[in-house]
Amino acid sequence: MTEAGDSKGIFMSDGSDGSGGSGPVVIDLFCGAGGLSEGLRQAGFQPRVGVDFDKHAAATYRHNHPGVPVIEGDIESVTGEELFRLAGTRDIDLIAGGPSCQGFSTHGKRIQDDPRNFLFKHFVRLVDEVRPRMFLMENVRGMLTYAKGEFRRQIEAAFNEIGYRADFTQVLAADFGVPQMRHRILFIGTRVDNIELSFPAPTHGEGEGLKPYVTLAEAISDLPLMGKDYTLAKREYACAPQGLYQVYARSGAPTEVTMHVGRPLSKQASSLAAHIGQGQGLRSAPAEVLPERFKKMRTIANGQLRRDCTTLYYRLDPNKPSYTITCNYKNVASGPFLHPFEDRAISHREAARCQSFPDHYQFLGSSFPRQIGNAVPPLLAKAIGLHLMKLLAAETNQHRYQRVA
């Protein structure tokens, strides 16, 4: 097994589909487009079932994980027996997923009573019905701090009530080779007494012994510039892969770039973008070019110019990881999505690269920004998966030793 700290283990993929292998069995609830399953598959897990209500995301999942059945519907109606039947086994190693808690997202309005905040209860219910050896739940960082951690304590208590020890941590996707400053919270848990709960150590960062963060340039510099042709369905790569990340991204990919499309900026956005350099946002534009509603943002109570940063109309810095890729990455007025070299929003393929999806991963249907923005970055999932594999393997080996003794 490759350790998570090995750069080749993080960046290389075998390019195979999601149905083969003989590793631990995982069921992916709230699977979306399949980023979590893709990373766990790269780590050696066998995805056996996906569940999601979004028909477009479900189509994407089926296409990229052939042979893995997807339950397309409301999680409330899914039962453990149905999951057993589709998985072809009652011996499930891991239930994983990211139940939506968008009411706690730091990138939108926080609404405590948003019904999506309570989908975790069905995650807990299905863990109880299936009784996997472990579970993995990923979610937005805001749920950790909302109401001084009360929501997080509810989740821990719910798992404890069904006999699972649980622990949580915050992770930054960039710490695991993803070219994106995406913060998330992870819950893991087990019903097995001799599994010691722990989390993977970062492999990238600024500390001693860590690899440098993967930058935006390292992620997308081989993708061609668009010029004025925003709608070309397929394009030649600009160059051969430059570095390990691009080798990973292009493993098993077509010979041409797909989903690399854009559109011209609006007149207002274009006039602002002309004044915004790499690593700069709206505050760098002269006051005279700002729409009236934005001029108030430039001063504080004493009338002086604000010196803090805003990521509205922010042009990405090629020498750093991107900011969080959200479902709004096609709208430069909503956040840090201006291309570093061209006056346009980043493309679907560039966003997918920032999320660490390989180029062979194709998104179907519509709502590509929602599918890509909501996904778990596969390389983050792979790092977690490699760590969980070690925990499960250690428990298995200890169990075998006790049986022999």
CATH superfamily placement of the domain at 7-207 and 376-404 = Vaccinia Virus protein VP39
Report low-confidence residues grouped into runs of 5 or more: 1-9, 12-20, 103-116, 400-405
CATH architecture of the domain at 7-207 and 376-404: 3-Layer(aba) Sandwich
Q: Determine Rg (CA atoms, Å).
A: 22 Å
Net shape: globular
**H/E element string?**
HEHEHEHEHEHHEEHEHEHHHHH
Report the CATH C-level class of the domain at 7-207 and 376-404. Answer: Alpha Beta
Derived structural class: alpha/beta
SS strand fraction: 5-15%
CATH topology of the domain at 7-207 and 376-404: Rossmann fold
Count the beta strands.
9
Q: Note the total helix count.
A: 14
User: Overall mean pLDDT score?
Assistant: 88
**What summary fits the major beta sheet?**
7 strands, mixed
What share of the residues lie within helices? 25-40%
Which strand order spans the largest sheet, edge to edge or round the barrel? 3-2-1-4-5-7-6
| End-to-end distance | 26 Å
Question: Which properties best describe this structure?
Answer:
405 residues; alpha/beta; Rossmann fold; seven-stranded mixed beta sheet; two-stranded antiparallel sheet; disordered C terminus
Describe the structure.
The chain is α/β, with parallel strands linked by helices. The chain has a domain at 7-207 and 376-404: Rossmann fold. It is built from 14 helices and 9 strands. The protein has helices at 7-11, 35-43, 55-64, 80-87, 120-130, 142-145, 150-161, 216-220, 244-250, 267-273, 292-295, 348-354, 368-373, 378-404, and strands at 25-29, 46-52, 70-72, 94-97, 134-140, 165-172, 183-190, 234-236, 256-258. The chain has a 7-stranded mixed β-sheet, sandwiched between helices. Helix 2 (35-43) packs across helix 14 (378-404). The two termini are 26 Å apart. 42% of the residues are buried.
